[in-house]
Structure formats: C-alpha cells, structure tokens
Amino acid sequence: MPILSWCHWLQNTPFATGIRQSDLLFPLIEGSHIMTLSLSVGLIVLFDLRLLRLAFAAEPVSKIMEQFVPLSLPGFAGMYVTGVLLFIAQAEKVYLNTLFRFKLALLVLAGLNALFYQVKFYPKMAEWDNRGVVPWGARISGALSLIIWACVIALGRTMAYEL
Amino acid sequence: MPLQQIWEWSYSSKTIDILRNVKYAIPLIQSFHLFGLTLVLGTTVVFNLRLLGLGLLKIAMPAIAKQLWRLAVGGLMLSIATGILVFIPDPARYVANTAFKTKLVILLAAILFHFTVFRKVIRANTPPPPRRAAGVAAVSLTLWFCVGWAGRAIAFLG
Question: What does the DSSP assignment read for B54-113?
Fold first, then answer.
C-alpha cells in the first residue's frame, strides 16, 4: 500500500521523530490541539445554537454569523496545524487507526455541511432573516453541525486510546 | 472525613468496576468531559474577547452574559460530573498525581473568580474602565486555560 509506506517514511523523518520523542513538544502540541476547541468548535456551536433559536434568539442570524464565525477561523487554523503535526509524528499508527478514519470522514462531512449552508441558505439570508424565520434546512444544518462536531471530539479522544 | 476509606471503597466497588472494565467507558466519559471543556473555555473566550473589545462589538456585553451564562454553567456541571466519573475508578492514581492536585486548586480559584468578580463585571450595564477590563480578562483566561493545561498534564505526569 503506497499510502502506508509514505506514512512510514513520514514518521521516520527527523522532524517527525523529533516531535514524537520530545518530552515537552508532543504534550504541548496535543494540549494546544484540545485548547483550541474553545475558539473553533466553541464558537461554531454558538452559531448553530442561534440557528436552532437556543441562544441569541432576539438577534438576527446574519449578525451572529458575522460576529462569531470569523473569530472561529484562527481557532480552526490552529486546530488543523496541530492536528497535522500530531499526524506526522505518528503517521503509520494513526493511518491504520479505524477511529481516525471515521474522524477524518466526519471532518469532510462537517465541511460539506458548512458548504451546503453557504450555497443554499447564505445567499438569501437577508430575506429569511428579516422575516425572523430560519428555514428548516438551515436548522437541520445547524443541528447536524452540533452532532458532527460532538462525534469528532469523541472519536479524537477515543482514537488516542488505540494508538 | 476518612478520605482513604472512600478511595478504598471506590477502588473495590463492583458498580465502579463497570467503568474500568467496559471497553470505551472511560474514553466516552472523557469525551463528555471535553464537551464541557469546549463550552466552558468557549464561553470564557467569548466573554473575554468582548470584555477586551477585541470582537463581538455589535452585541452588548450584558446580552452576551445573559445568553451564554447558562451554557458556561451547564458546561462546567458536565465537566465536573464526568470528571468525578473518571476519578472514582482509580482514585489512588489521581490523588498521587501532582498535576491533578494542581488542577483542583486552580479549578477552585477559577470557579470562585467566575461566580463573583467575573459575573459581576460581564453583567454590568456600564463597561469597566479598560485597565480593569484587561486585568479581569487576564485573570479569567489564565485561570481557565491553566485548568485545561493541568488536566492535560495529568496523563503525562504518570
């Protein structure tokens, strides 16, 4: 399997070995990966809750989106960078981990769900926002986002037990 | 309080055996611990970004406090409840762990600060002077993120 041999090569590069064997670096990267949950998923959850009218129901959805979503982007950037570093350090084991594959699939799904919202509901947001009614599809998209991110966190925590 | 007896009881309890022996019981509980962390740290970041004037300026501070306080408290309850469930199957390991003891002390300080000074500042109708806001935000962010980091350190300090 070419991917597996590539992972084998990747985790044996001096860079990967350096991270893996460092008493300080590995825990720091792993800890940062978890702490950035606050700025990434933490903020997206608030937007999802607004779509479901469970928070900030008195504020327009467009305002909540404009205020919260851009702030989550540095959080997601930190999340992906630390995630990639963790992968590089243990590429072979992680690649073979079934839970990791589920996690990756769910991350793709989270991206597609966000894209679906952008394409289907964002263009007409001003219109439905003025009426004060969130379309059912947008609510489902918000609920899906909450479920997907909860599963991503659970899979991330559990996969570490299998490494 | 005979703490030692509580550890011994919980270590030998048959009910608590389930937590130790069912595959994925502990990781699943820890996942919920992290859902709580996401809510607590997430709302803390939001409160403090607004307090420092670094974002969310179109929403009034008291409105943010009113909307998100329940989530912060809910997240904290979830993390404490699941934290207890992770602790009881193996109490001896945790009480001997320096990172765990440090975490408890900082957590207590964080809770105390959050429910007194911090709550009052974020609920006030008039914003605090910038220097006071900066001081309050620095204490709040330092305390809560140190709770998180100390928690992560438990696994690495044996």
Answer: SS-TTS-HHHHHHHHHHHHHHHHHHHHHHHHHHHTTSHHHHHT-HHHHHHHHHHHHHHHH
Interchain CB contact of A63 with B (< 8 Å): yes
Nearest-10 Cα torsion for A49, A54, A57, A60: 10
Contacts of residue B70, defined as CB under 8 A and 6 or more positions apart, other chains included, come to none
Partner A contacted by B142 (CB < 8 A): no
H/E stretch holding A162 reads none
Query: Where residue A46 falls among pLDDT bands split at 50, 70, 90?
Result: very high
pTM listed for this prediction: 0.93
Interface check for B4 against chain A (CB to CB < 8 A): the answer is: no
* Cα of B143 to nearest chain A Cα, Å: 13
Rg (CA), chain A: 19
How confident is the model over B98-143, as pLDDT tens digits? 999 999 999 999 999 999 999 999 999 999 999 999 999 999 999 9
- Could you tell me which chain B residue has the CA closest to the CA of A55? B67
Give which of A71, A157, A158, A162 to mutate to test B binding, by max B Cβ within 10 Å.
A157
Q: Complex ipTM, two decimals?
A: 0.93
pLDDT in the model for residue A99: 96
